[in-house]
Amino acid sequence: MAWCPIQNYRGDHYSYRGYCRGRWLNASFDFNALCRFLQQGQRAIWLLCGEEDECRAIAKWYCRHLPALLWRSLQPSDRPEAIIGAEYRLLLLSSHHDFDPNQFAAAVGALQGGGVLIWLLPPTRCWPQGWPDRVQQRLAVYPWQAEALDRRYQQRLVRFLSVAKPPLFVAEVAAARGGGWQNLALLQQLRQPPLGLNLTRAEQIRALAYLERNATGHRYRPVVILADRGRGKSTLLGLAAAALLKRKLGHIVVVALQRSMVTTLFEQARRQLPGARLDRNGLTWRGRQLRYCCATDADVSGADWVVVDEAATLPLERLQQWLISLPRLVLATTVDGYEGSGRGFQLRLLPWLKRELPNWQLCQLQQPQRWLSDDKLEPWSRQLLLLESQPSAESVWVPDLDRVVLREFNREALWQQEPLLQQLFELLVAAHYQTTPLDLRHLLDGPNIRLFGLWTPESTLLAVAMVAMEGELPPALSEAVRFNVRRPRGHLLVQTLINHVGLASSGGLRWARIVRVAVEPSLQRRGLGRKLITTLQQQLQRQGIDMIGALFAADSALIDFWHSLSWRCGYCALKINRSSGRRSLVMLHGLSEAGRAAEHHFLSRYAPQWWQLLLGALQRLESELVWRIGADLPLPQRLEREDYDDLEAFAYGRREPETVLLPLKVMLQSKLWYAASSLPPWSDRAWLVALLFQRAAPEEIGRLSGGRRQWVERLRAYCRQWLQSDLFD
């Protein structure tokens, strides 16, 4: 097998060849340079290029000869979350058939100082034309085939890998023509602690004191921990929890979206507590508990101390409720990197904290604990994956909305214009917490993806919309979607509405689904998002698009935003999404006559289903969401003359409320639909929703209202007010 030298390699060259199972490494690969680099405490990527079986043979030979070393071979099925927070000196990653950027980012983040990631790739002769992989198949939405997709992401990846200099060390596997030997230098290197790795713990000690004061000192002084990845956030929280259990705190709760996200936290605590019992639910030690609680249904009642990990991924309203109600609380989040951007968290929650809880404390972890402060691999990987989030908040002025223009990105040119691509993706990372490295591949290669930017006349990028084109399904496929026997890839909005609401014929319409909307964080809430969507709607309408919509995590502020654009809610998911910790919500808006007819059909069909679901699967849905979604849906029924007689007997007499719940419900629905001025204040809407729409238990209604006598009297007063207003409506 011939091999190709890597261009622009700079470094010492020693003329030797390493032999393993009858295969050779090319003579230009400098094994000693890699070993010296690792000995300095630096992390490295050893890129093995060749046929898959040959590369695996070499890599696994080294791994098998390191039985005492913590190493792991990553499989394509391994979720990135499985290694977040873990630490390894040696990782093996094969990308012959898969390159998942999320998994790669997590692997780099899990690598300790002085460690090496052995990365297996096809021979360099395959690089110019690209190579097939399963991730490409995931991007092949209906009706495209994976083979027909562009490989812009791979072309950009090759451009980075072709510059082979530390921390990247590239070796090509070539066929052997004679005997050889195995090089043991790397084995000896990885068995020894690196000389340059001398990490400081002073910052961790100061942060530990912050946390202990939060748990034992004055109440209602929450601590917010902000850190990039690799700063030891999980270790710090685990050490603090163990120290507090030793100080006889009996019940500590750790809240996170997934148990795997806090594995390191619990492991660190266990190491500090001899005899502690650790399981999926948490840790027990001498009758004291360190308990895990899923963020989607967190029960933190009775806790002495509550820690919320990756708080940026949770709804802002829920965090605010905890901050007000919990006397001892810590919110920790990753600012940048794969685990989730905390930039939006900083811009939205921290100003609220300064206003409402001025005694809160900020703790920022800046010193890396997993690698050196001058580590070469971290900036290299961030540049490759575009994980940096540094919007120029100070240099961006408030633009004139009448002068900004909408322009569509040319994706064929985008991957070759690195500064523009970096600017675009940095904005997505900064403004949306769910943006991951895989999104970069999606926006470059997704065949149904279109990108739009809002620009100033001076070419300053202010906002971005990532749009997926859907629909135009054949009638037979639309019917299969209606029967829930087919789910065509990439048509999420269409299949959600057809499957749950009906109208299979709408599958033939031309749809546009907004996947991401990102506004420069320092300019949010100044009309740019509304300007972006309004202008985008006009352009898509001229291009013959029938329907525009979005599917997002249900949030009161976002619903209000879409309502301001005359969008309506067409569906609310029955289950909570694991990634966001919230239910998904579909908002839609017809652009053409056919689209508007489909919108009316969806709303009319979903309305009776919605009110019935509030008695079952959606019985615990937040009252603010019930109120806003209910206002979008047509009235399922109207009041008869006899209903008004019953309501009058309740309002002005002593009739029991349980005998008029149905007409009361219909009357309140009509107030929502007509946005009447006689709607009750927000302080009463929670118990009204629980009583009339969700039929909650009497105890729950009493808890929300202050007791039965109080809510009955207020309900009679509202009923009198509504009856009087109906005379003039």
Blueprint (SSEs and pairs):
Elements: E1 19-20, E2 23-25, H1 31-39, E3 44-49, H2 52-64, E4 71-74, E5 88-94, H3 101-110, E6 111-121, H4 134-139, H5 152-161, E7 168-175, H6 185-191, H7 202-216, E8 223-227, H8 233-246, E9 251-256, H9 263-272, E10 277-279, E11 282-285, E12 288-294, E13 305-309, H10 316-325, E14 329-334, H11 343-356, E15 361-365, H12 377-385, E16 405-408, H13 411-414, H14 418-431, H15 437-445, E17 449-455, E18 461-471, H16 475-482, H17 492-500, E19 510-519, H18 528-542, E20 547-553, H19 556-563, E21 568-576, E22 583-590, H20 593-613, H21 623-630, H22 641-652, H23 661-673, H24 682-693, H25 698-705, H26 708-726
Parallel strand pairs: 3-6, 3-7, 4-5, 5-6, 8-14, 8-15, 9-12, 9-13, 13-14, 19-20
Antiparallel strand pairs: 1-2, 2-7, 10-11, 11-12, 16-17, 17-18, 18-19, 20-22, 21-22
